[in-house]
Amino acid sequence: MIRNIIFDMGNVLKYFIPLKLIAKYTEDPEETKLLYREVFRETEWIALDAGAISTEDAIASINQRLPEKLHAYCEGLIRSWWKDEFDDVEGMDELIGKLHENGYHMYLLSNATYNQAEYADRLPGWRYFEGRITSAEVKLLKPSRAIYELCLSTFGLKAEECIFIDDSAANVFAAKQCGIDGIVFHDDMELLKRRLSEKGIRCE
């Protein structure tokens, strides 16, 4: 029987859209393309989530590949992206509230930087969450098996009593390899509710 529901954050609870962040700094197509590639699609971003690099070192490393006129934009994106008000995934707050009402326990498991603690209380349904594992803080990344096992041991959960919701099929597959059932979220609330119901989870 499922008793615990573990949520990813980005594009499950709140939308994370790098191009919207970049648009705060520039609307030039070439600058946008360059910033997207070098800030969000290179190894420093992963290293930040893994807790393997400092913010200062990440900025310095990325700026070596950017023209000087974009250095301030890079710093703003790295230091301040999490201060922006990202849109909630519509209906997620209500769903989590209903799951809580029906007796389920909620946890957060996300690849994120150390800053997550500063904005976690702005996440949909956060008042119902009983625990949080952030990749940078534990120096493990999804889909590493170790981070799922750490989540289970930290909160005293049994894998067979948990279900994991993530927008990444690879991350859900990894959870299943650890005995945790999972659902890939496709930004479709009705589909998510249907799949939860199919697994015997009361979400209405």
Explain how this protein is built:
There is one protein chain. The chain is of the alpha/beta class and 204 residues long. It has 11 helices and 5 strands. The protein has helices at residues 18-22, 29-40, 43-49, 55-63, 71-80, 92-101, 116-119, 135-138, 145-155, 169-177, 189-198, and strands at residues 4-7, 105-110, 129-134, 162-166, 181-184. The chain has a 5-stranded parallel β-sheet, with helices on both faces. Helix 7 links the parallel strand 2 and strand 3 (129-134). Helix 3 packs antiparallel against helix 4 (55-63) and helix 4 (55-63) runs antiparallel to helix 5. It starts with a strand and ends in a 6-residue tail after the last helix. The model has no long low-confidence stretch (mean pLDDT 95).
Number of strands: 5
Can you give the helix content as a percent range?
A: 40-55%
How much beta, percentage-wise? 5-15%
* Averaged pLDDT: 95
Major sheet attributes:
5 strands, parallel
